[in-house]
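Supplementary Text 2. Reproducibility record for the structural model of the 205-residue chain.

All settings were left at their defaults, and a single model was retained for analysis rather than an ensemble. We include the record here because the model underlies the residue-level annotations in Supplementary Table 4.
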Amino acid sequence: MLLPILLAASLQPSPQVSLVCTNSAATQTQPVPGPGGVVAVLKVSTEDDHSKNSHLCNAEYQLLLISGAGGTPRVVELLTSDDDYSRGLSLRLSGFSQDGKHVFGVFSETGKHPFTMLFDYRATDGSVQLIDITKQFAPIMPAHCSSTLEVFGTTATGTIVLELHPAKQCAFSRRWLLDSSGNRPQPLSQDVPILRLYEPQPATP
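Retained model, structure tokens:
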């Protein structure tokens, strides 16, 4: 059985938001600022899939990028899933890399076909890399060991640094290196420098 991985609810700019998949529903994270005045929002919208042969609920995940006050959002399509009604949906916008070239976030679903997906939006070419976190960590974490996950930052070469906190001491908390190639996550060595996610500086009085 794949281990359940939950979204962390602290230490990052945008808190987790949740929604039950029903017809004509939507929710989104609080805006997260990035370098150069860009603001990001993670959104999910749900509706009946209108299939004549099934009664399922469609969930559409989108990243909204806004440049400047009152700017028109750029909509980045992340994923569309079609599964049972009333399944739980959760999403969290982790934030921008220090150089503003990446936006990271995590979304997950419960139900018959649960998953936890990390996305890496690349501003340089507008591409999106999706990484199945549940599948990636299944060989590492004990079964039934639920954990919280957060994107902590990146290395100097752009590899994603994740911080994993297992519940009930069923495994050790630690940081992991995760690349987009689908390779198994690697433990982070203490001598590897980490670039934390971007944090805006407070205005000078």
